[in-house]
Structures are given as C-alpha cells and as structure tokens.
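Aggregate trends can hide what the representation actually does to any particular protein. In the encoding step, the backbone of a single protein was reduced to a row of integers, each denoting a local shape. The record that follows shows the chain in one-letter code together with its fold in token form.

***
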Amino acid sequence: MEVNEITGKILTAAYKVHTALGPGLLESSYQACLKYELVKAGLQVEVEKSLPLVYEEVKLECGYRLDMLVENQVIVELKTVESFADVHIAQILTYLKLSNKKIGLLLNFNTKSLKNGIKRIIL
C-alpha cells in the first residue's frame, strides 16, 4: 500500500475518533480507539512498539516505544497537549531516524478541531 493511502486512512480514522470522543481524554483512550479503527480499516498496526537505540556496536533496549507503527511504514505519535512543542517534533524525528522510516504523523487530540492538531513529518 502506498504511504499517502496509509496516511489518508490514518487521518480519516483519527478524525472519526476525535469527532466521537472530543478533546480532554487520556492519550491511551485515543490510542485504543484509533487502533480499533485502523484495524477495522484493514491496516496492520503495532502499538507501543519497542525501538532500540543502536550506536556503533552498542545496542540498548532502553525503552523507547512508538505509540503506533502502521503498515510497517508510518509512525504515529499521539499527544494530548495544549499545543505542540519543539520537543514533540524532535521526538518523532528521532524515532524516524532510529527506525529508518520516512513518514511520521504527530496527532494532538487535545484540540477543538483535529485539523489544528496534525503534523506530517518527513525525514
């Protein structure tokens, strides 16, 4: 499946979840509902996927976890914050580098309109 088709399905599902639940819940609530919608849409989803840190000959299983990896191509990081901070963008950029993935979606469900809580990150 093409990456733009995958991201389109992710955003459609995210809008559906946000419309039904609105802002103000815990990140884990949105994560469970978004996973449900993505699986229902026929996408393969890994939740809380561990991400090791590899530096030269050192491999650390240091507990980094992707909120979601969809179709082994798109990293989805969920937030429930007032607004995105530079550290949120740095986090997903680091995850993209460590995992050798190219596309990430940063979704903030704590917004009145989800369209104001979406950032597409390309490495």
In short: The mean pLDDT is 95. The chain is about 40% helix and 35% strand. Helices lie at 3-21, 27-40, 86-99.
